[in-house]
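Deliverable D4.2, example record:
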Amino acid sequence: MIAVEEIKRAREVLEGTAIRTPLVRLDVDSDAEIWLKLEVLQPVRSFKIRGAGNAILQATDEELAGGVLTASAGNMAQGVAYAARLRGVPATIVVPDHAPQTKIDAIERYGGRVIKVPYEEWWQVLVTGRYEGASGLFIHPVDNDRVMAGNGTIGLELLEQLPDFDTVVVPYGGGGLLTGIASAVKATRPEVRFYAAEPETGAPVAATLAAGTPTAVDYTASFVDGSGSRELIPRVWEQASQLLDGAFALPLGEVADAVRLVAERTRVIAEGAGALSVAVAVSSRLAGAKKVVCIVSGGNIDPAVLSRILVGEQP
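Output generated by the structure prediction step:
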C-alpha cells in the first residue's frame, strides 16, 4: 500500500494543478446507485495529471536538469508534458505506434517531443526506463510511488464526497490508479471492495486471478488504448493484488455501449478506458453492491472513433 501520509502530501503539492473532480450520479435503472468520478474534467482530461504532477513537482532541480522522459500511450504523456512545462523543463515522450492522433496532438500542444515506436519497443522502454538518444528523469506511468500517491488523492476526495459507498471499479492498465485509490480508501474503510476493469483484448489481471499465478496474455490494440496490456508489472501487482477483490474482462461492444451511455446521460465524453468501469457497473457483474463508484479515468478519445460509437457502431 501507498502510505496515506504520502497521499496527503501529494494533495498539498497538487493544489492549483489538479482539480477536485465532481462525483455525479448516473441516471440508469440498476439495483445499485452508480456514481461517476469524472477525471475527464482534469486539465489534461485524465487522472494522469495527479501522478505526473506529483512526481515532477516534487523532483529537485538537479533531478530535472536533463528534462523528463516517459513511455505512454497518451494520457500519462500529456500529464508529464503539462507538468514539465510548469517546471520549465523539456519532456520526451515515447509512444506506441497505435497511439491515437488526438493524444499525440495534445502532447505536442503541451510542448512534449513525441517519438513513435512499435509496441514491442515501447514496452521495453516501459520496462527499462531508457530510450537510446533521449535523456531526462524517467517518470514511469505506473511503477513510481509518487505517481501512485498522486493517484491516491482521488481516494481522499471520494471519502469526503460519498462516505457510504461500498464498491469502487477502476480501469486497470498498469495498476497504479487502483493501488493509489485503494490505499487511500482502505486505510479508513477496509471493507470497501475494489474491482479492476480491463478490455478482453488485453486482460492479464483477470487471467492471473483465474490462474492463481501471474499470467501473460495476448494483447491486441483497440480503441480502449488507455487500459489493458500483455502482462503485469511485478512490483505494482504485488501491491495491487493485496487491495483487489476481483477483476472483469470486458468485450469491446460493452465498452462502446458504456461510452455512448455516459455521453447520452451526462453529456460527458469518456474514452474507452474511462468507460470500462461504467460497463462493469451497469452489467450484472457486481452482485450485492449497493453504492458503486466508477472511476471515469479519461476523456481523450479520437473524434472519429467517438462519432462511430455515438451512432451505434463498434470501432
